[in-house]
Design the sequence.
């Protein structure tokens, strides 16, 4: 446990190397920090290390100084020298790199004081951002694989199942089925061998909980899988990872290798007669393959088309053998349950939803990132206390949970507890953890069309209601957002939605209408404005907005005219410019290049009299 | 990425399949590995896989076309992936895709006439906190807007980046 002692006596610079921070060049920053430490002769007392995703990608690249717990945000390559010289050598932390609270503008120096983290309870994400995911020693130093040792030496498979059952853990992949119960079905099913699958397909387009967990703590997921395999009696496992997650794949592969070297995976695990091996498979970009039956068919090398259940996978799954499938976060919760006990886990959360929920908080929100809170935490707390509210003093409009299968909830539902029951009753779902916040500039009709466009394209085409029904719904929604809607479209949409929900073969079709139904339920007036007045009140539907230049405010800087790709803007230097509506293609470039201080280019809804500016 | 003659492609696929003792249950993985090497799935590739797996070409095509990941025409020198995930959409990602289509005069899944760029769309790259997101080759560009995009394209077109 060399690292544990190192951490006590040494200063450690932890550079985040999750996908988000890597994209803003954090590996180069780490090298620069290493070089600066060396140059200042601090190598004996300072370690430079990296971690997986902290979940606060918005503020990246992140550098944390341990053990003090100083948190640096938006670190640039050229800041490396200053951090090492000023902070580590002179003892003066670099204030300009502290995180700034978007609400109070206050600079906060310590990780633990940042509201985004302070109000979270991290179980699944317990190690993300704290340990180097590529070094098994660091996982071992935080009690890694203790749960596996305990399970194998002190518990029978049935004891493990009983513990998970009593913990109240429910599947984190969306449907929330009790995990212990699923394991028991599979254990009791006849058939040999048995298989275990980790579903890391993360299909919800706009969510990254599973990616971050795999990148930040691959051993946590792996340990959970091995314990589950022991419990159900599986000898072979698969992890099916979404195609777009190369970093998660390589970290998990690395974790498997070092786990094998340490006898936590492979033959005769920890000297027992239990053997288990895992194969990594990469998805090939089909949303429906997140659905368990489709996933298993895809895993066997075919077109991933769902099949009716029963038989359930626990009885007949991969190669027609008993198979247990769980989500990444379900597995990541297991080691903690075994270590700390079912009672501890079930003391967290609400009555029927135990433990924590992990959300990927995105959209129009100040603190975008990963949030883990006890189940049942009110939506308002997640969005405003942790998420820091809506930027630029805009008004909150809606929050979307559950991705393409979920719904949009309005402001009056903000006090709902985030758990399976409450969100379900309101017409949405918990889902796997996507949470997209929308403000007054987001059009909910456009969002409904967006999701239908997605599900329609991803429908595998096997059953008619899903294949053709979603296409007709999409057509209606496209017409409405283009100003071609008809009075009875809303009722037609609702009728279609009910048929599709009732008669589709798999979860994709059964839930696809949810975004439409909830937006009609809570924002019917917006649909009506689009249909009757042919207007998009949020100025988001491209076909219903126009760009105009306010002649009084324009300073004639010519930026817009220079950048217009179709030469639709005319005007002399230092004089007001004008946009030709006939030529304009509404790309919005003029709007983005118009200087912030000036803001003369306005987005207006179609009717000139409605153009009060933005 | 390399361009292979039909014979070379066939040798590669035959070795791959026998060396790793892959069978028809590994069709997707084979397609992924071959696309990784050659950049796309050509007619030659399909017939070669079909021969070595003893599985009709139409079945191989059926599988390949089912999955978004597989391409059937030659990609350009640079591949641009536009994120069409929810977070990116809410933050104005649709405009990015439209500007690209117009500037490059290609649709999704197509390559420009000069062979310089190909355009793809993806549903979420998992860095939604940086939305809207675009990936140029392997580089992720976050917080994109239409004017930054035209600058980025300009750099590539002028040959400042390769
Ligand atoms: C269309 C569709 C997409 C799905 N996508 C995912 C996914 O990306 N990840 C996931 O874990 N579960 C997904 N599920 C749920 C799985 O079918 C399955 O219920 C889940 O993996 C079980 O794991 P759990 O019990 O741990 O939740 C999806 C279901 C449907 C109907
Ligand atoms: S929605 Fe674009 S990266 Fe996730």
Sequence:
């Amino acid at each position: 446990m060399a690292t544990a002692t190192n951490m006590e006596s040494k200063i450690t610079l932890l550079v985040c190397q999750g996908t988000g921070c890597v994209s803003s060049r954090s590996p180069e920053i780490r090298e620069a920090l290493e070089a600066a430490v060396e140059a200042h002769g601090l190598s004996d007392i300072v370690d430079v290390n990296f971690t997986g995703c902290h979940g606060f990608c918005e503020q990246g690249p992140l550098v944390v100084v341990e053990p003090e717990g100083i948190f640096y945000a938006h670190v640039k390559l050229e800041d490396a020298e200053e951090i090492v010289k000023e902070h580590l050598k002179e003892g003066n932390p670099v204030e300009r790199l502290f995180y700034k609270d978007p609400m109070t503008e206050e600079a906060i120096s310590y990780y633990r004081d940042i509201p985004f983290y302070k109000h979270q309870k991290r179980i699944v994400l317990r190690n993300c951002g704290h340990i180097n995911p590529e070094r098994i020693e660091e996982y071992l130093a935080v009690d890694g694989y203790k749960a596996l040792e305990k399970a194998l030496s002190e518990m029978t498979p049935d004891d493990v199942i009983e513990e998970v059952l009593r913990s109240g853990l429910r599947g984190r992949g969306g449907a929330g089925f009790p995990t212990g119960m699923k394991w028991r079905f599979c254990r009791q099913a006849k058939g040999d061998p048995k298989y275990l699958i980790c579903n890391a397909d993360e299909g919800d387009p706009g969510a990254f909980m599973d990616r971050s967990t795999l990148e930040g703590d691959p051993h946590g997921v792996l340990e959970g899988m091995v314990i589950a395999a022991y419990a159900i009696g599986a000898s072979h496992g698969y992890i099916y990872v979404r195609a777009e997650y190369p970093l998660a794949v390589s970290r998990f592969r690395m974790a498997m290798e070092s786990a094998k070297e340490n006898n936590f995976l492979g033959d005769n695990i920890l000297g027992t007669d239990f053997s288990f091996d895992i194969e990594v498979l990469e998805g090939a970009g089909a949303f429906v393959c997140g659905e368990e039956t489709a996933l298993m068919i895809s895993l066997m090398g075919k077109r991933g088309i769902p099949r009716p259940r029963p038989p359930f996978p626990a009885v007949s799954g991969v190669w027609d053998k008993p198979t247990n499938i769980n989500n990444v976060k379900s597995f990541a919760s297991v080691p903690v349950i075994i270590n700390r006990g079912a009672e501890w886990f079930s003391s967290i959360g609400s009555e029927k939803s135990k433990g924590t929920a992990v959300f990927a908080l995105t959209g129009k929100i100040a603190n975008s990132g990963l949030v883990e809170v006890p189940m049942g935490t009110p939506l308002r707390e997640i969005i405003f206390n942790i998420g820091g509210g809506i930027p630029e003093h805009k008004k909150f409009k809606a929050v979307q949970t559950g991705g393409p299968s979920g719904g949009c909830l309005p402001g009056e539902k903000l006090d709902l507890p985030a758990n399976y029951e409450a969100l379900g009753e309101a017409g949405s779902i918990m889902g796997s953890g996507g949470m997209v916040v929308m403000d007054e500039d987001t059009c909910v009709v456009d969002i409904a069309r967006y999701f239908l466009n997605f599900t329609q394209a991803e429908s595998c085409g096997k059953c008619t209601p899903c294949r053709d029904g979603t296409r007709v719904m999409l057509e209606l929604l496209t017409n409405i957002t283009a100003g071609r809607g008809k009075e009875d479209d809303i009722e037609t949409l609702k009728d279609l939605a009910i048929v599709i929900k009732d008669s589709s073969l798999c979860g994709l079709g059964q839930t696809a209408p949810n975004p439409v139904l909830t937006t009609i339920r809570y924002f019917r007036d917006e649909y009506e404005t689009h249909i009757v007045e042919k207007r998009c009140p949020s100025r988001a539907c491209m076909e219903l907005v126009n760009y105009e230049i306010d002649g009084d405010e324009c300073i004639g800087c010519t930026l817009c005219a220079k950048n217009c790709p179709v030469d639709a803007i005319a005007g002399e230097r230092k004089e007001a410019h004008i946009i030709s509506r006939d030529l304009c293609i509404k790309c919005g470039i003029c709007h983005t290049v118009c200087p912030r201080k000036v803001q003369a280019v306005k987005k207006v809804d179609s009717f000139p009299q409605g153009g009060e500016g933005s | 990425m390399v361009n292979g003659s039909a014979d070379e492609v066939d040798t590669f696929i035959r070795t791959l399949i026998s060396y790793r003792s892959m069978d028809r249950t590994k069709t997707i993985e084979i397609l992924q590995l071959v696309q990784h090497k050659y950049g796309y799935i050509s007619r030659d590739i399909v017939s070669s896989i079909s021969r070595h797996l003893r599985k009709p070409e139409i079945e191989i095509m059926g599988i390949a076309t089912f999955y978004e990941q597989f391409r059937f025409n030659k990609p350009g020198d640079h591949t641009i992936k536009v994120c069409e995930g929810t977070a990116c959409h809410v933050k104005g990602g649709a405009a990015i895709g439209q500007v690209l289509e117009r500037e490059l005069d290609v649709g999704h899944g197509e390559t420009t006439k000069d062979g310089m760029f190909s355009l793809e769309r993806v549903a979420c790259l998992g860095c939604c906190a940086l939305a809207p997101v675009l990936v140029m080759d392997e580089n992720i560009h976050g917080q994109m807007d239409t004017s930054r995009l035209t600058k980025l394209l300009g750099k590539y077109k002028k040959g400042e980046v390769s």
Observations:
- The beta strands of chain B are 78-83, 117-122, 134-136, 139-141.
